[in-house]
TrEMBL record:
GO molecular function: ATP binding; magnesium ion binding; mevalonate kinase activity
GO aspect biological process, one term: isopentenyl diphosphate biosynthetic process, mevalonate pathway
Binding residues annotated for ATP, in chain numbering: 110-120
Lineage, top ranks: Archaea, Methanobacteriati, Methanobacteriota, Thermococci, Thermococcales
Keywords for the protein's UniProt record, in alphabetical order: ATP-binding, Cytoplasm, Isoprene biosynthesis, Kinase, Lipid biosynthesis, Lipid metabolism, Magnesium, Nucleotide-binding, Transferase
Protein name in UniProt: Mevalonate kinase
PROSITE patterns to which the protein is assigned, alphabetical: GHMP_KINASES_ATP
Length: 330
């Protein structure tokens, strides 16, 4: 028996950084997926094969205390620790320790770009392995287990990435509570700068600025929270689609300006943001922690023009849409 599962990447539509201070955020699953195939093997060991994970190619296998890398790549090692934790967690739940499992991973999601590749691989692994072991888990439960994996590997996590990857669509998140917002087609272009920022360092940098000048940073964070609430209201409103998209675009631009004020943009990110707007996007902003990573643009009927503009500005564009589906068994 073998099981193939897949889970999507995510973008934070609004509210990164301010969410760390208890404000709301909105995230969405997008149509880039990680695929995980799970099957039993006779070795009694966990074997992980990772191909094409948008990091130099490698094949890895490890048992409990040993890790064998065909090549030693940091980013890949990071991804694998999510996979191992995910498998171990499911084995605990299934109480079927000892049976060898081979997991093969392929992914369309760039690693370390702020698109939730770690959460997607954790969720897809939990989905595939739990099915293989005969566990009946809902996608929401798998999202929660994905959050536990993130906590085990990273030490801290809001849980927004594994949740949206597991349940799909658009979610509003506030203080640990998630709600699905009505699904809407959002014609998106993601622009990858080609470098990755460290979420941990950027969050710490914002914290230092906050502590040094709270009277300035607090109102910025409050405004970000208000941008998120306005975006939520817009998504829930009866406005016609064109008006909704135009409003969301304006809110994205405001959110980007506020993120820039916090110091998390870079020259490259700003160049991609302005290139996208000049090419006709309704709005463009950083997505995720910043300091590199990705931006995204909302570009109805202008996706290919915006993608070209991002390429010319030195970024890697990915034309994508919101994914209604989260985790799915293929
Ligand atoms: O870079 P990402 O996609 O992991 O997003 C980080 C989002 C932050 O708000 C900056 C941090 C957090 O824990 O919410």
């Amino acid at each position: 028996m073998r099981v193939l599962a897949s889970a999507p990447a995510k973008i934070i539509l609004f509210g990164e950084h301010s969410v760390v201070y208890g404000k709301p955020a909105i995230a969405a699953a997008i149509n880039l997926r990680t695929y995980v195939r799970a099957e039993f093997n006779d070795s009694g060991r966990i074997k992980i094969e990772a191909h094409d994970i948008k990091t130099p190619g490698l094949i890895v296998s490890f048992s409990e205390n040993e890790i064998y890398f065909e090549s030693d790549y940091g980013k890949a090692a990071e991804v694998l620790s999510y996979v191992r934790q995910a498998i171990e967690l499911v084995q605990e739940e299934a109480d079927k320790n000892g049976r060898g499992i081979t997991v093969s991973i392929t992914s369309q999601i760039p690693v370390g770009a702020g698109l939730g590749s770690s959460a997607a691989v954790a969720v897809a692994t939990i989905g595939a392995v739990s099915k293989l072991l005969g566990l009946e888990l809902t996608n929401e439960e798998i999202g929660k287990l994905g959050h536990r994996v993130e906590l085990l590997v990273q030490g801290a996590s809001s849980g927004i990435d594994p949740t949206v990857s597991a349940i799909g669509g658009i979610i509003h998140y506030e203080k640990g509570k998630f709600e699905h917002l009505p699904f809407m087609e959002l014609p998106i272009v993601v622009g990858y700068t080609g470098s990755s920022g460290s979420t941990k360092e950027l969050v710490a940098m914002v914290r230092r600025t906050y502590e040094e000048m709270p009277e300035i940073v607090e109102p910025i964070l409050t405004s970000m929270g208000k941008v998120v609430e306005k975006a939520r209201e817009t998504l829930l409103s009866e406005l016609e689609e064109g008006q909704k998209l135009a409003r969301l675009g304006r809110l994205m631009n405001i959110n980007h300006g506020l993120l820039d004020a916090l110091g998390v943009s870079t020259k490259k990110l700003s160049e991609l943001v302005y290139a996208a707007r000049t090419a006709g996007a309704l709005g463009a902003k950083i997505t995720g922690a910043g300091g590199g990573g990705c931006m995204y643009a909302l570009a109805p009927e202008r996706q290919s023009e915006v993608a070209t503009a991002i390429t010319i500005a030195g970024g890697t564009p990915m034309i994508t849409e919101i994914s209604r589906e989260g985790l799915r068994i293929e």
